[in-house]
Please model this.
Amino acid sequence: MIKNNIKESEVTDYKHYLNRRAFIGGGLAITAGVMFSKITNATTINNYLKNKNYGKGLEPHSYEEITGYNNFYEFGTGKRDPEKNAKNFKTKPWNVTVAGECKKTGTFLLEDIIKNQQLEERIYRLRCVEAWSMVIPWLGVSVASVLKKFEPNSKAKYVKFTTLLDKEQMPGQKRPILDWLYVEGLTIKEAMNPLSFFAVGLYGKELPNQNGAPIRLVVPWKYGFKSIKSIVKIEFSETRPINSWQQQAPNEYGFYANVNPKVDHPRWSQKRERIIGRGGFFSPEKRDTELFNGYQAQVAHLYKNLDLAKNF
Ligand code: MTE
Model:
């Protein structure tokens, strides 16, 4: 566990968290800096809250909600399984292999990959394909800022990401729920879009194991399953990768997985979404699902000539 002077119970909700930040000011920044230096070797954490461009008007869920209701099938299929089963998951040291159509291939320590980068906080709504959502204050770096370092070449049309395979640490991988490895992919243009994010933390703290420590993808205009956790490999390719859920059920899950209220999942509607933790069991609070999860202005151009009903 991370040693700092905020107890988990004190970062329960975002207002409290911000008040506390304002109250202890620089003190927190330094502690956070020490905490993150383990991951990033960066001293720039002090300014991490300055990015106000992302998440205006979004009210984050509590720390407990975000870390107690997870999808991470490597640690079980129940929503509370990852919190329970990922407790002892070892994420340090962590290597990431970079391969394929780029100049700088190799295996790198995570802290070397994001060294000297400023961590930003971005508040994004995670809209799960299961028609629920929650709002999460992530901490991390843009995907573009990382990928550029490896100098992808003109054949790099897609980026494939892979989660660790380790049956001993990840008990879910002993069962044939998916054809392990967990794999995800983006077009290079999607990956380079400024919204695409690598999270290494949330609520100003190191990423909890159940949320995909030590590094996971967050693509806020796509269904949650695209945001692959505990990444060990990044591969640039000329051909489109087949992602795990698409391979499992190609009529239900496509490559794009853009949030789209007009294209239903074959077994349920995507028009609305249940807001985790709001309303009662019998009367859950819901909201209308937005096209591209509300990011139409930033990403619609990526799909200009694409039939979104066919390319779901
Ligand atoms: N990544 C891996 N490796 N394994 C998974 O089972 N589940 C996905 C995604 N990333 C998953 C994964 C799904 S379905 C969702 S909705 C999000 O993670 C959930 O992220 P969260 O638990 O941080 O909210």
